[in-house]
Fold:
Amino acid sequence: NQRETTVVWDRHTGRAIHRAIVWQDRRTAATCARLRDAGHEEMVKARTGLLLDPYFSGTKLAWILDNVEGARDRARTGDLLFGTVDSFLIWKLTGGRVHATDATNAARTLLYDIRKGRWSRTICDLLDIPMEMLPEVRDS
Structure:
């Protein structure tokens, strides 16, 4: 289901602010290398079970916030939402009433603490991602 593909959209219009970044995209390889060099990989792996790799959604989301004009400010004011393909489709199919995913999809974002069963504030802070833009994690 393209679990790692990253979509950021305007909560008011439902329009994506950038083309989806698919799981194969390696544009954040340098970001991942910097985070590894700074000593963050063990912490990320302990919380998420994942390696610091551009395959996963977290650094792609940070890239969108850093590279789409005004995106980071709009995310901080609550105007933007993030999701993988499943949560974007759920949001669309419910007319914007539900912004949700399940733990299996959340666990592929690099932002989800698999031991605590919730989004990791530590990793979101590391990547400067406002947690308010993340979908609610629900049982499927």
User: Anything to note?
Assistant: DSSP finds seven helices and six strands in the chain.
